[in-house]
Amino acid sequence: MELYYKNETLFVDVDTALDDENFRHLKRRVFHIIDDYDIDHIVFQVSGNGRENRKKLQEMEVEYHQKYHGRMMIK
C-alpha cells in the first residue's frame, strides 16, 4: 500500500489483500491523516484482490461519511 498527497487529495493505492488486520491498520492510518491534516478528498485506487478490497473499503466509506464531510472515491 502506498499513500501520497497531491493536488489537495490523499491517494491510497491498495495493492494487497485487506484482511481484518490490514484493514484496521489502513483505516486507522487514513483517519489519523485526515484528522491531522484536514483533508477533504480521498481516492482509493484498488488493484489485485479487487472485489474483496472494494467491499471492505465500501464499509470504510460509510464510516467516513458518518465522521467527515469530504469526498471519498474508490476506483
Could you give a quick summary of the protein structure above?
48% of the residues lie in helices and 28% in strands. The chain has 75 residues and is an alpha/beta fold. α2 links the parallel β3 and β4 (71-74).
* Total E-strand runs: 4
Q: How confident is the prediction overall: mean pLDDT?
A: 92
What Rg is obtained from the alpha carbons, in whole angstroms?
A: 11 Å
Helix content: 40-55%
Note the gap between the termini.
15 Å
H/I helix tally? 2
Return the string of H and E elements.
EEHEHE
Assess the beta-strand content as a share of residues: 25-35%
Structural class: alpha/beta
Give the overall shape, derived from the CA principal axes. Answer: globular
Strand order of the largest sheet: 1-2-3-4
Biggest sheet statistics: 4 strands, mixed
Low-confidence stretches: none
What does this structure look like?
With 75 residues, the protein is of the alpha/beta class. It is built from 2 helices and 4 strands, in the order ββαβαβ. The protein has helices at 20-37, 50-67, and strands spanning 2-6, 9-14, 41-46, 71-74. Helix 2 (50-67) links the parallel strand 3 (41-46) and strand 4. The two termini are 15 Å apart.
